[in-house]
Amino acid sequence: MIEKIAWKGWPNCYRLTNGEVELIVTADVGPRVMRYAYVGGENLFLEIAGELGGTNEPTWKLRGGSRLWVGPEDSSPRTYAVDNAPCEVHKVGGVLTVTSPVEPASGLQKRISLKLGRKGSKVEVVHSLHNAGRKAQRLAPWVLSMMRPGGYGITGFPPRGTHPEVLQPTNPLVMWAFSDLSDKRWRYSSKYLVLKQDPKQRSPQKLGLFNPKTWGAYLWRDTLFVKQYTADPAGTYPDMGCSYETFTNADVLEIETLGPMTKLNSGDWLHHTEQWSLHRGVLVPRWDDATLDGVLQPLLG
């Protein structure tokens, strides 16, 4: 079911539900997926109360939810494009598509399409960039899901091997100038990377990596959000080769996937597809490989 509703001060929102889970997308700004949760349950996405319900503000707003950006990140209007204008909405069958106006500074247009399964929690989310300008642009799609405070962001490395049988490097692990591997919010094992969101820790942390089977998860209490993306090993990825990045500060933890750098010609579209799912009753008593294998591997595929 897809229905138009008012939500958190925005009069033009759309709710997708199959009776088990629900998603809410606002058309008053964005496009932004603002809620993904079990029906009647807590939203796993961040909601910034003071920025909900607003529209047509002159400056960029964090707001929360899951959004589409353009990589690689810089201080230009292309990265931090203001997305505060109303969007166009189309419903075709069980697919909801929300499209932004063309951004004046970049000439780009953003679109998010969602297809929710008839049962269960799985959602196909297609993020699209359209070059409405006159000149080709070289860019990468970049999808940031902003998660509510107090949980754990989890991702996995590509399959491990042994020395001397595997002599070539298998993947990058990328640091930023503010990355601090001694920070207690990081947890490492041979297969997994975990980052805790701590509202008491204001300093930012970020790492990135490449995995052909890119995935990120967020555990809040006993509910787990998972998103997956198939990366192209032959592609050239931004940020020294990242298909996945995770960031945190005192307010948020972000789970981010990136597509390859692409020459997007005038008039063309570029698509980046994630698969989302939610899982209840998830417990992680220890942050080791055996425990995480048992919890996560049945959910990835």
Distance between the termini: 26 Å
* Rg (C-alpha, Å): 19 Å
- CATH fold label: Beta-galactosidase, Chain A, domain 5
The biggest sheet, with number of strands, parallel, antiparallel or mixed sense and barrel status, is: 11 strands, antiparallel
Number of strands: 21
Low-confidence blocks of residues: none
Mean pLDDT: 97
Count of separate structural domains: 1
Task: Give the structure's gist in a few sentences.
Helix content is 4%, strand content 45%. The mean pLDDT is 97. The chain has helices at residues 238-241, 289-296; strands spanning 2-7, 10-17, 21-26, 32-38, 66-71, 88-92, 95-99, 108-116, 123-131, 137-147, 152-156, 173-175, 186-188, 192-196, 205-209, 213-220, 223-230, 244-248, 253-258, 262-264, 269-279.
Note down, in words, how this protein is organized.
The protein is mainly beta and about 300 residues long. It has helices spanning about 240, 290-295, and strands at about 1-5, 10-15, 20-25, 30-40, 65-70, 90, 95-100, 110-115, 125-130, 135-145, 150-155, 175, 185-190, 190-195, 205-210, 215-220, 225-230, 245-250, 255-260, 260-265, 270-280. It is globular and about 55 Å long. The strands form two sheets. Strands 1, 2, 3, 4, 5, 10, 12, 15, 18, 19 and 20 form an eleven-stranded antiparallel β-sheet that branches. A ten-stranded antiparallel β-sheet has the order 6-7-8-9-21-17-16-11-14-13, with no helix packed on it. Strand 1 and strand 2 form a beta hairpin. The model has no long low-confidence stretch (mean pLDDT about 95). The protein has a single domain (about 1-300), classed as Beta-galactosidase, Chain A, domain 5 (Distorted Sandwich), CATH 2.70.98.
